[in-house]
Specification:
Layout: H1 8-22, H2 29-36, H3 40-43, H4 50-63, H5 74-90, H6 95-104, H7 110-119, H8 125-155, H9 165-185
Helix pairs in contact: 1-2, 4-6, 5-7, 5-8, 5-9, 6-8, 7-8, 8-9
Amino acid sequence: MNASRYSKADVLAAAIRLLDEVGLPDLTMRKLATSLDVQPSALYWHYANKQSLLAEVSNTIVAFSKPVTKAATWQETAKLEALSLRDALLAFRDGAEVVSSTLALGLGADQALERLQTSIAIDNQELAHAAAESILFLVLGQVWHDQQRMQANSLGVADNLELTGTPNLEIGIQLILDGLSTKVKA
């Protein structure tokens, strides 16, 4: 099969479909190639390795978050930005794990942190960065937790594990922002 049969965008779209079907642990280059009816080596025409493909998947997930319009206060804008990211992560099976792994390896998904930091409109960029990173890790952790519970529930591994994400996440974000507001005023 010809490597140019599919574009890079086609391969990425197929990877995202496969991620939603089988989850991250079962998303392999071999399964992706099979789903496209090509040899696995054809995928390497577009992506050097699985990690570079997952970096593009991560960027797509983050880009899926809806743009946030500026709210009355920077705290409200930052909270809306975090919740928009949460919604994007939840829209994709194992979204939080994919984005977290990509960020940990420094391969992509930087837009998530950049958007959060930009939404925290304070003069001290060091504090803005620290707060944005804390919120990002909170969002990733909470969504990952809930996605694991959703998976367990769907497989019947556990009896209807409760999803605690949204209320606890909003409280946690507010705590970080309130703490930052106190620090900025000091």
